[in-house]
Write the structure tokens for this entry.
Amino acid sequence: MVEEQHQIREEDEIDLIALVQTFWAGRRTIFKFVLIFGLIGLFIAIFSPKEYTASTVMVPSSSSKGAGGNLGGLAAMAGFDLNVGGSTELIPPSLYPKIIQSIPFKKELIKTPLKVSDVEEQITFSKYYTEIHSPGALGWLKKYTIGLPGVIINGIRGDNNSAVIEQDSAGLIYLSQEEQSLHKILKNAVTIEVNDKEGFVKLEARMPEAVPAAQLATRAQQLLQNYIIDFKSKKAIDELNFIEKRYEDKEKEFRKAALNLARFQDQNKNVISAQAATTEKRLQSDYNLAYGVYSELAKQIEQQKIKVKENTPVFTIIEPVSVPVEKSKPRKLLILAIWLFLGIVVGIGLVVGKSFYSKLEKR
């Protein structure tokens, strides 16, 4: 038993020595690949476009307490029906990524004004990427190598770059090639991460310059909040608008009833008759009813305004947007280390493969 273990140990030592000898014999090949891959990594590290990342962290919540006016009695008095159930709908944070990737959201976001270097006036995100921004050496290399088929296809299709997103009478949205390109850029430029466990949302914006990155992040945050607030408060706001419209109508009826009553009383001050008394009672009854509906609607308007505020989502900003100081990309040392490691792996793999193939041929 001891002799077998000793023999296995000797075989392992022999295999290890043979492997080291193989590496030493192929050291030039390994060095060449390390050098080649290192130069590639150095090229990528130097010519990769700069990127700055601005971010914000917020906690979405709703201040809704389920308040809702019960307008059943008012409806009976005024002769109309108000369906004012509590509005508790809220967009779940898990859908926030879908919102920022939607066409209407991007349509607004590409209009974001940006302050870029070497340009005195602010320009939009759209104008920056269509007229100012240069993709750099790696961008051109990628475009005319990997992206060459797409360039050829776009050339065959022809130029279809309208200035704005068009929408026909049926509500269908048409995007030009330029707009599709801008939307693809936005897909990578603005991202959102939802932490369901801790309940916060992190929004990030990436741009080649620091200030535009912060401006884009701020605008994306504002748009996202507006979308969510509009969705949550829409029902309560619609109800408020409806009540205000009815209030205006009933105010006219109330003023008309008051005027009719006052006019009749002025014209029949000294008249004593059953007919005049009956008419006055009828006019007084119309006035009281109109006043009751009018005053009740005024109360309901104030209640509905409170309801709108209660149904408005509240966003607690944990970490506001700030202008980034350091670049987030490229991470030059990491890029160089990865490519050097790949060179070592490929070089060693080639040397070991050649050695293994030579042994097979000898057999």
About this structure: The mean pLDDT is 78. The CA atoms of residues 79 and 229 lie 32 Å apart.
